[in-house]
Amino acid sequence: MEISKEEKAYLLKIVALVLEQCVGLGKKLEELSFPPVPNPKLAEKCGAFVTYHKGHGQRKELRGCIGYMEGIFPLWETVARMAYAAAFQDTRFLPLENAELPEISYEITVLTPFEPCASVDDIEIGKHGILMECANHWAVFLPQVPLEQGWSKIQTLEFLALKAGLSKNAWQNSDTRFFVFTGIVLEDNAF
User: Fold this and answer.
1) Which of these, 154, 156, 155, 152, lies nearest to 142 by C-alpha position?
2) Rounded Cα–Cα distance for residues 118 and 36 (Å)
3) What is the pLDDT of residues 92-110, one digit of tens each?
4) For the residues of 26-78, what is the DSSP string, one character each?
5) Cβ(88)–Cβ(18) under 8 Å?
6) How far apart are CA 162 and CA 77, in angstroms?
7) How far apart are CA 139 and CA 2, in angstroms?
8) Are the beta carbons of 180 and 170 closer than 8 angstroms?
9) 105 beta partners
10) Is the sign of the CA dihedral 2, 46, 137, 185 positive or negative?
11) Residue 97: which of 52, 131, 61 has the closest Cα?
12) Which of 7, 65, 76, 114 could be a cystine partner for 51, CB 3.0 to 4.6 Å?
């Protein structure tokens, strides 16, 4: 999947609208009206994540990240729902507040469908997002996460296992399954 400049601008505008109206003015997502979708491709069902960061450069810290891994809703609606959820429902953080908005940057990661991965040797750090499933536990990292953290492949797999609530070596278990996907990252550097 490719995303044009117009489509990117539209999707980023949805996130900005959620931040302005929901965080800034206290509206609920259901109260918003969005501009008409400029291209039918944005109405196709597709998985996506919305990620917020606070600060810039070396001081940039995760402030919220939630997504749907599969296409449940049209892409534009997924982005709207996840923009809201990442601002208010990421249980790792308190809800985003209006006073934080000047320091917030955001990105959307549009996901390709998941594909089974026969071996961890087939995983390419920086190219593939990874879903690990083991003993009814699972965790996922978007393709950009290991690069942002400076992790090797082994470190990535260990942190993925820990994120799933397992021991760091659980990725080596024979019943562990991996799925890979790619993501198109759409960034806006500042709110």
Assistant:
1) 156
2) 42
3) 999 999 999 999 999 999 9
4) ---GGG---PPPSSGGGGSB--EEEEEEESSGGG-EEEEEEEESS-SSBHHHH
5) no
6) 31
7) 26
8) no
9) 53
10) positive
11) 52
12) 65
Percent of the chain with pLDDT strictly greater than 70:
98
Dmax over CA atoms of the chain, in Å, equals 50
> What is the DSSP secondary-structure string of 96-164?
P-GGGGGGEEEEEEEEPPPEEES-GGG--TTT-EEEEEETTEEEEE-THHHHHHT--HHHHHHHHHHHT
CA atoms within 13 A on the CB side of 22: 24
Are 168 and 161 contacting, i.e. CB atoms less than 8 angstroms apart? Answer: yes
Cβ atoms of 29 and 81 within 8 Å: the answer is: yes
pTM reported for the whole predicted model: 0.85
Q: For 34-67, how does the pLDDT look when each residue is reduced to its tens digit (9 = 90+)? A: 999 998 999 999 999 999 999 877 788 999 999 9
Work out the end-to-end distance of the chain between its first and last CA atoms, rounded to an integer number of angstroms: 26
